[in-house]
Structures are given as structure tokens and as C-alpha cells.
Amino acid sequence: MTVSSFSRRLFLDRTIKGIVGLGLIPAWSGRAGQKAATQGTGYVYDPVFLDHILSETHPESPERLLWINQKLEETGVFADCVQLDQGVAPEEYILEIHTQRHHGLIQDKPTTGPVAVEAVSAVLGAIQAAAGGTIRNAFCAIRPPGHHSHSDDGGENGFCFYSNIAIAARYAQIACQFEKILIIDWDYHHGNGTEAAFYSDPSVLFFSTQIPSAWPGTGYASRTGEGDGEGFNINAEMLSGATNDDFAKVYDDILIPAAESFQPDLVLISSGFDSKRNDYLGYFDLTCEGYSCLTRKAMDIADTYCEGRLVSLLEGGYSDGRDSVGSFYGLANTANAHIATLLSNELQPECDYYSRTKRIPVSSRDNPDIFVRNRKLYIQSNISAIEKIRIMRADGMTVQTMREESLARIPVDLGKLKLAQGRYFIAAVMKNNKELIIPFTL
Ligand SMILES: [Zn+2]
Fold it and tell me: What predicted TM-score, i.e. pTM, was given to this entire model?
């Protein structure tokens, strides 16, 4: 027995015990442990994806792909992947999801239109390779992303032009005869376009984690599908600062039992890395290890029901730090952890996110100088090192900013801030450009 298969079995055992222990299902399906039919991880990338530019300083920058590629080359992951370069003519499948009007208006956009079609084509090629058994799973390093695109916008929606993953799901059904598709969306933002595409469709189970009050303002758990699709749309609401453990629990408690009753034929992932710690546009705290763990949970579903077939599509994931577009080190590291897990089954170790970044969020337990106790904010020393303190709601909105003058009155009674009950975060912005994130509850 290899180390890989040993640790994988242990992981599956733990997962089974977790679900059974919660009483969510009576027993694991007899199909558990089914071996993947094929091996190998495909990688989809084309330099044409760099040609699409929204603006020079836009966070959805071509640099994102270059950083990911460079990291994969450094770690050897790139060399271990199967490079997939066979696309599929996508027009008829695009029109399964989008109107002719939308398609025409996107194609009228110079550069962006053709690049967006190339991205869809490349994704369909990866689906075809997984369906044909050439590979077991694949990652598609594509731009532009897709999960906010609606059927008839005729334009950009949240940096998206075509609903790549929805088109991929339809292609898998029509051209590859897969009946049931599971789409997992772990991007920080809700996959509103994907939800809309399949809201009344019981053949696609959509599972998405987000803060519903964050952009685009959708993703409430009460939205469960309609008509025949009732129960096939699952929104898991998260809080700002959600950790690896918070995500693992939602996957164990909600996604895995849902997959057990759905029994998908193919798993697709809307793989946004803006749920990573310190993302420019996200406020979750997933790390490399967290992304790796969620990847393994998705792979376990694919191994159990789909002979390992899983295709992951890049969505969001931006530079590190809140204030400016800069290093994409965290994006590259989390993408590497995800793809290395697809390759090896192995849980990837934690990585150093911040060696080239400006701001360093740390929890209060790492920082004895600033902490909250009994609804009071204490700053033990070195107040002059603090530039400002922001109080943020769980959805990431700043509700109060305190500068040096108000910090002179220590401790600060957080109970007097006229805030509603709930979970909040303090962001202590230090003059050395570190940022300390401290959660508290009122
Ligand atoms: Zn996003």
C-alpha cells in the first residue's frame, strides 16, 4: 500500500464517521471507496487568455495566470500535469445557456469576445478529456471568469462574460451523456449566474459558500431552487473571516450528504481563490491547507460517484492586501495547493503566504498586545505603532474607524458603539503596514 492510498483511506474513514456521527445519513453508500478509473490531472492554459484586459489597474489581471504558472513550475506540479490543448467548438453549447443577443454583443467586443470564447472552448476540451478517460481530473487556468455571467446581460457582470461552468455542465450532459452534474462554488462571491442557469433544473446540484450581503448580494440559504429544481440549489451562508474549519464543517454537514442523495456523474468546481486569507476582494480566511482539504472532499465525492471525474475552473482570486493591487503570491500558493492535491490526493501543507506581501492579518491569540475581553478592546502597549483601527461587520463592511485620539482612551468599550448584536472584526492597521484581524461578538 502506498502512503497515498493509506492516508486517503484514513481520510475517507474520518469523513464517513463525521457524517454518520451527525446522524445525517444512516450509513455510507456501498459505492464508497470505488477506485477512479483513470489517473492524471489535466491542465488547461493558453497564452491567449492574457490578451483580455479590463483596464491597466484592474484586479482581474492577466498577471494572475502568470503567477499561477510560475508557482506550478517552481513546485514541479506543472510538469506532472497533462497539458490539455484540444478545445471544442463551443457556440451551440454557449447558446444552451446564453441568448443569441448576449453571444452577439460579447462577440462584438474586440479581443475580449474572442478570448472569452477560447476560454469556454478550452474548458469543454477538459470535460471531453475527463469523459473520455484521458485524465481523471483537470484544472482550467482560464480568463475571463464566468460564474456571475447571466443569460442575457449582453455585457460584463463581475468580470465575467460567459457562464463557463454552466456551459460546461450542459456540454457534459449533451455531448458526454452525463445526467447529473454537481457544481461546487468556493469563490468568495456567490455564483449568481450559475444559480440562475439551473434554478429550476434538478439535473444540476449547485452548492455555493458566500456572505449573501457581500457583492452581488445574493446567495441566501432560503434560495433552494424552484419547481422541479426545488432542493437542488444549496447556498451555505458564511461569516466574514470564515476559517478552514468553518468551511470543512459546512462541506461535511451539508455538501457531502447532499452529494450522497444526488449521486452526481461529474463534479465541477467554480474555483475562486478570493476566499483565501488576505485577498484583495475577499474576507474569508481559507489557507493553502484549507483549499487542499476542500479539494480532497470534492475528490472523495468524485471518487465515490463519478469514477474520479472532476474539472475545476478558475474564477476569482486576486492580489494580496486590501489597499492596492500588488503581489499575487497568495493566489499562486492556493492554486498550487489545489492542483497539487488533484494530482496526488495528498493534503498539502500550509504555505508561507506573506513573504512578499505588505499586510499580515493575525488572530488575537498571536498578538497579546491587542485583544478583546468582556466587550472591551485592550491595547497593552505601543499605541503609537497603530495607524487606525476599523470595526468591521461580519460581511466586511467597516462600521467605525478609530484613530489615535480615540485610542488614547483605553480600554475602548465596544458595548457603547451602538452596534447591533452579532459578530464583528477589528482590523488594527499598524504603521509598519501590518494588519491585525481580531474577531469579537457583541
Ligand atoms: Zn469572486
Answer: 0.75
